[in-house]
Amino acid sequence: MKKTNKDLISFADHLTNQYGEPGTATREKYEEEFEAFKLGIMIQELRKEQGLTQQELADKCGTTKNYISRIENNASDIRLSTLMRIVRDGLGGHLRLSVS
Question: pLDDT tens-digit profile of 28-52?
Answer without folding.
Answer: 999 988 988 999 999 999 999 999 9
